[in-house]
Write a structure and sequence with these properties.
17% strand, alpha/beta, six-stranded parallel β-sheet, Rossmann fold, 41% helix, 355 residues
Length: 355
């Protein structure tokens, strides 16, 4: 197949959505497909709308995939006549994010036009599919292809058991870009309620996505004396080393279309603490492989952290269950092949098993 993927900026941008895009492109290319990238300029939502003046769909291809993030830039092009299937790769609806209701009403109207203009969808979670269905109905072809968690590898059950039984402070990992949406301020508020020395927190994620917020978090930590280390963006061996020495992954996000970080943490036997927002409840079973709180509930989060810090048998049980959950999930290769077979079906081509 000759495929074109439309995104904003670089495919190398650090986020779960761009990781999904990178993994999908790599899988398609490994199967012999030609995948070209159209990179539209990043900017404000208004500047993205202005892209409609000049952007038009490319020609001489079999299928076009648009990362749903680019929806404000492709409205006109999609509604003009086209002779190739257009598939929207939906990680998370922009209008589902935390902001003023009037803003999301405007974004929802624009997203609805985009979703109505395409010929099918790739969804990363049931929550994402549900949000699209509630907006435009469920009459179009789609595939549910959850992200894999095997990018960084995994560890043994014995290693998980030994780590969970060690003494010392409970080692927490916040693995996300430092933005208000991901809820680092909620976690810090919870840590202030705990005895000093009970927990140590390491933060791995970009400090540049929302600099004022990241600087405010760092200033709050300096004033409070909490045991918190900021690493910035980590990947590959440095990130693996951090996962190996952590006990619990905590990202009290206000919304997730999927939440790849939770699954990558579970690959290393880290119970996940998230919230009840978005797709998180589809991954975390409360009390089994982690815990969920209501978004913004730092009191409940503090109580859970104190319980885990004082009961290492509980931590050991949750850690073992987290690893088992990861082992039951699809790999990136399996997820990529689900998408590829879906694309072939849209072209009415015979499928062949993967070598």
């Amino acid at each position: 197949m000759k495929i074109v993927l439309v995104i904003y900026g670089s495919l190398g941008i650090i986020s779960g959505g761009y990781l999904y895009d990178r993994k999908l492109v790599a899988h398609l290319r490994s199967r012999g497909d030609q995948v070209d990238i159209i990179s539209l300029p990043t900017g404000t939502y208004f500047s993205h709308l202005l892209n409609n003046i000049s952007f038009r769909l490319p020609s001489h291809l079999d299928i076009l995939i648009e990362d749903e993030l680019v929806h404000p830039s492709v409205l006109v092009a999609n509604h003009l006549r086209h002779n190739v299937p257009i598939i929207s790769l939906v990680h998370n609806l922009h209008s589902s994010e935390r902001r003023a209701a009037w803003q999301n009403w405007s974004y929802r109207a624009i997203e609805k036009q985009h979703l109505a203009s395409v010929d099918g969808y790739i969804f990363n979670s049931e929550a994402t599919r549900s949000s699209v269905t509630s907006l435009v109905g469920d009459g179009k072809p789609c595939v549910l292809a959850p992200p894999g968690g095997d990018r960084l590898g995994t560890i043994t059950a014995d290693a998980v058991r030994r780590r969970a039984s060690r003494s010392g402070p409970l080692r927490l990992l916040f693995l996300a870009n430092v933005t208000p949406l991901k809820g680092l301020h909620v976690l810090l508020d919870a840590l202030r309620r705990l005895p000093r020395g009970m927990c140590a927190l390491e933060v791995a994620g970009s400090l540049a996505v929302d600099r004022p917020y990241a600087q405010r978090m760092q200033s709050d930590i300096a004033a409070s004396g909490l045991d918190v280390t900021f690493h910035g963006v980590l990947d590959d061996q440095p990130l693996i080393a951090l996962l190996l020495r952590s006990d619990v992954l905590v990202v009290p996000s206000f919304w997730e279309g999927f939440g790849i970080a939770y699954l990558e943490g579970m690959a290393f036997g880290l119970p996940a603490i998230g919230t009840t927002a978005g797709a998180i409840p589809q991954m975390i079973t409360h009390g089994l492989n982690g815990y969920m709180i209501e978004p913004g509930d730092s009191d409940s989060l503090a109580a859970l952290l104190q319980s885990l810090a004082s009961d290492r048998h509980q931590l050991q049980r949750l850690s073992a269950n987290a690893l088992r959950y990861f082992q039951s999930c699809p790999t990136w290769a399996q997820s990529g092949e689900l998408v590829r077979q879906f694309l072939l079906q849209r072209l009415n081509r015979p499928t062949a098993p993967q070598a």
